[in-house]
Every structure is written in C-alpha cells, then in structure tokens.
Amino acid sequence: YDLPGFVLPKGEKAINLHFIIVDNDGGGIFSTLEQAGIENFDRACSAPHGINLLEVLQTLGVKVVSPGAKLEIKSAPGLSVQIFKVEPKTKIKEVRAEIHSQMKLVI
Q1: Using CA atoms, how far apart are residues 62 and 81, in angstroms rounded to an integer?
Q2: Backbone CA torsion sign across 43, 46, 52, 57
Q3: Distance between CA atoms of residues 44 and 27, nearest Å
C-alpha cells in the first residue's frame, strides 16, 4: 500500500531520508495488536505477499543499501531504503527494539 510514497514527484528536490523496512513477507505488524494469539488471528491478519521488495524498490528507482538479514543501519545520501529480511513469525517488537538500539548508535 505504501509503495507510491517512495516515488518523488517530478520537479521535487531530492531529500535526505532513510527508511528501514522489516520484511517478514507481510502482516507481521499486526502481531503487536492486543488480539494477537487468539484463535484464527494469523489466518485473518497475516498477509503473505511473496514480493521481492528489493526488486520492486529498485524498479521504482529507490536506492537500497545493504539489504539482508544483518541488522546494521547504513544510510546513503538522498532517499534510501534498507531492507531487513526476517522470518514471517519473527516477533516484530523484538526487531523494533533492536532497530532502536542501532539507531542510537547512528544518531
């Protein structure tokens, strides 16, 4: 749903902005909801898409830096994205905590 947000409109100046994407193949953000764990929750709320985000973002002209599973934040000048591939059942709260600790080292 958010892919068009990575496309800079014509005439707009480039900006320095770095996005961090945790790619768990969709739906993992809902695991942070109170309802997580109830019967049929995963069936209703996970949304596996099977899309290769690296290829999609590169097709849109987005600069992708150090994609992979190792959590080490690296930005680049202009609009850049870093993708961290994790297993679908990875606890998003734990990943977010690790990202926040890495950000403290970068800032």
Answers
A1: 7
A2: positive
A3: 9
Sheet holding 17-23, edge to edge: 17-23, 79-85, 63-64
Closest CA to 71 of 89, 98, 53: 98
28 is written with which tokens?
Answer: 């993992």
Residue 12 structure tokens: 């707009």
Model confidence pLDDT, tens digit, residues 55-73: 999 998 888 876 666 666 7
Cα-only R_g, the chain: 15
Is 57 exposed, middle or buried, given 0-12, 13-18 or 19+ CB atoms closer than 10 A? buried
Q: If you ran DSSP here, which 8-state letter would residue 12 be given?
A: P
pLDDT at 107 over 60: no
Whether residue 66 contacts residue 45, with contact meaning beta carbons closer than 8 Å, is answered with: no
Contact (CB, 8 A) for 81 and 64: yes
